[in-house]
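Shift notes (night). Ran ABC1 atypical kinase-like domain-containing protein while the centrifuge was going.
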Amino acid sequence: MLLSQLQHRGVATDVRANAAPAADSAQASAEPEPPKKKRSRAVDFVEATKRLRWHWKVLIVLFELTIIEYLADKFFLGGTEYRTVVACGTLVRIALDYKLHYGPASWLSRHEDEDLHQRNAQRLCVMMKYNGGLYLKGGQALAMQGSILPREYQLLFGEMFDDAPAASWSEIRKVIEADFGGRSVEDVFGDGPSALFEQEPRAAASIAQVHYARLADGTPVAVKVQRKNIAKEIKWDLWVSKLMFDYTAWSTGLPMAKVGEFLERCILPEIDFVHEAENADKLSRLVADDENLRGRVHVPKVFHELSSDRVLTTEWIDGTQLWDKDVIEAPASRPGIALGKHTGLGLRLSDTMETVLELFAKQFFSWGFVHCDPHPGNILVRQHPRDPSKPQVVLLDHGLYVTMSPSFRSQYARFWKALVTDDEALLAQVAQEWGMDSPEAWADATLMRPFKEKPSEQGEKLQRRTETSEERQQRMIEEARAYLGDEDVFPREMLLLERSITILQGNNRFLGSPVNRIKLLGKHAVLAVREGGFGEATMADVLGTRVALCKLDLAFWWSCVRQYFGYGSGFEQEIKEAEERQMRETKDVIAELLGIVVD
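Came back to this:
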C-alpha cells in the first residue's frame, strides 16, 4: 500500500516535472517572436561576392573594365583603340600566314605565291575599308606605289579610290540637318517637281561620300557629305600616328619628331569643307588666269550657300576617271561602252596626261599652290566643250594642299633643274640649303630611278653582302637620317610633294607612259628658274639644258619603239622595274623587322 502510494507520488512528480517544460514551451510558442531585420539586396550581393573565389572576382573586374573601356573608346576616343586592335590583329594574321605558307622555309605546307598574296591583300583591304579615315588614305597611297608590295595588293587597293563603305542615309540626313540649323534636306536643296536628292551615293571615299542632286531649278549638283564621326576618328588617328613618329624618333634617332605635327597640320583641314571650298576657288582663279590651261582644266563651281563645315555642294560633272583608258580612247560613236549619255570620248591618252602634268607643273614651279592627292579618283576626263577632239581635265577633292613659300618654290625649281641637267653642283647647293648631307637619295626618289652607284661605293657594296642583320638595320637607319636631313631646316612639304610626284608617275605608267613626265616637269622647272630670276641663264647653261632635254627625249622615244615592238612596257614601267630592283634591300629589312614577307 505504502509502496503503491510512493510510486503513485513519484509518477505524479515525474508527470508534473515533465509537464512543466511542456507548458513553458507552449507558453513560449504562444508569445510572438521579435521581427527579423530585413537585409538589403546590396548587403546580400556583398556577402555573395565575399564567398566568390578570387579568380571569379578577377573575371568580374575585367569584364567591368572592358565595358568601361569600350564605352570610353566609342564615345570619347572615336573608336581609335578598337580600330588599332583590328589593324594589329590583321597584320599579325597576315604575318603568320606568310610564316606558315610562304617560300621554301615555310613552317607548314607551301602555297602558291599568287594565292597567298591575293588572300592577304584581301584581308588588308577589308581591314582598311572597315577602319576608314587615314587607313583608307594609306591604302590609296599603297595602290599608287608598286615598289613595296606585290601586284595583288596594288590592284585590290585601287578599289579604295571611290569604293569605300558607304554611310547610311539616316546618318547623312542627320549631318545635313545638323549643319543647316535643323532644316531638312528638302528645305535646304529644294522641294519641287524638278528637285531630287539621291539617297544612294554615287561614290564613297575615306572622309566623305558624294550624292547626286538636282536643285529646284533643275541644276544638277554634287553634294559631298562628311561621315558622321570622321572628324573625331581622324583627330585621334593623327594623335596615335604622332606618338608613333615620336617613338620612332626616340628609338632610332631619326629626325622624325616633327613629321607627325606637320601631317596633322596638313590633314586636319581636309575635314573642314569651308577650307576645301576656298582651295577650289583659288585654284579655279589661277587656272582662269593662265592662257595655256584655261579651258583645258576645269574646277567645279562651289555653291557656297549650300555648303558648310561638313557639306560641300559643287556643280555636277559628267566625266570618266583618269584610269578608264578604254572609255577615253573609245570612239564617241562606238556602242557598248557606256559613260552616262556617251559611249566613248575618242580622246588621246597623250593629250590627256599632258594636260594633267602641265597643270601640276604650274602648281609646283609657278603658283606654289599644290594639290597633294591627284589619284585617279580625283581626276575626271571629258571632251572639251568647244573642241570635242581635245580633252578637258576636271580636278576634284581640294582638301589636301601645300602652299610653298617663294624661297622653297625657288629651291624646288632649282632642284628639278639640277636633276634633268645632271648639275651636281647645283644639286649639292640645294641639298645644303635643306640641311642634307647628300642629295642623291632625294634625287633618285624624285625621278623614280635606282640610286646612282659611284665607283668608290662598289667596295662598300661588296662589304654589305657579309654584314649581319643588325648591321644592315643600323646602316639603313643612318641612310634614312641622311635622307631626312637637319630637322630644323629640312622642308617637310617635300614629303607631300613627293607623294604627288609618285601618284602622277603611277597615273602615267598605268596609261602606258604616253608622256615623257620627267622632261615635261623639268622643262617647267627650268622656265621657272629663268623667269623667276632664281639663277643666271648663260649661253652655256641654255645649251646644256637643251642637250639634257634632248637626251631625255631620245631615251623616251627609244623606250616607245621597244614598247611598240613588244620588247618593253613603257618608259615609266622600265623606271618602276629599276626602282623595284633597288627596293629589294628595303623589302628584306621589312621582312626581318616585322616578320612580313612583301615579295
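The first helix runs from residue 2 to 30. The mean pLDDT is 76.
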